[in-house]
Design goal:
7 helices, 7 strands, alpha+beta, seven-stranded antiparallel β-sheet
Length: about 190
């Protein structure tokens, strides 16, 4: 299993930051699935972006596929269970209002939680990733005095640990398979 750290994903958070600390990022990691199959599972057809400019980019990454959504609907985050059929998937949502993590295996929700309230986690096995959450310095009980200001980098490292998929800056710099989300709810 991967021993990724938060530092491994600070670059990705910076890529989707407004420069004053606000991150807007929907990212997903899917083990042993090609970019084509990952897009197919969430209903995204490879091709040009639609009129809105919203879509999903699928990157061939070490161990599988990493997905990045350009838009506001959270399609990657909301389709974590579909992405995990026959494999494992994890997704991170970081918006103005939400900072969340979800992990599914074989179409079954294993754990999901807000990055600011881990103690309220839910799922079939909500404690499965607890050792990794602790190792990454994420707030377990909501009372850590040195709580991370923004735990998104740690959540991305947790997604890597949960799936074994690593998105490097080099993978991200390569062309991705993209497709529009204009035809998907809630965009249509």
């Amino acid at each position: 299993m991967s021993s990724a750290t938060a530092a491994a994903y600070e670059w990705l958070c910076q890529e989707f930051s407004d420069g004053v600390g606000e991150i807007w990022l929907f990212a997903g990691f899917v083990r042993d699935l090609s970019p084509e199959k990952a897009l197919q599972r969430i209903g995204v057809i490879p091709g040009p972006l639609g009129e809105s400019g919203f879509g999903v980019a699928a990157y061939a990454a070490d161990g599988g596929t990493a997905l990045i959504e350009y838009g506001w609907a959270g399609i990657i985050y909301n389709c974590d269970m579909e992405l995990s059929e026959g494999t494992a998937a994890a997704a991170v949502r970081a918006t103005i209002n939400n900072r969340d993590f979800t992990h599914s295996v074989d179409g079954r929700l294993i754990t999901t939680f807000s990055l600011y309230s881990y103690r309220f986690r839910e799922g079939a096995d909500p404690d499965r990733l607890q050792a990794d959450v602790e190792d990454l310095g994420m707030d377990i009980n909501g009372d850590q005095p040195d709580f991370l200001d923004d735990p998104v980098s740690s959540a991305l490292a947790l997604a890597e640990r949960a799936t074994g998929v690593h998105l490097s800056p080099a993978c991200f710099a390569r062309p991705a398979l993209i497709g529009s989300t204009d035809h998907l709810h809630p965009y249509r």
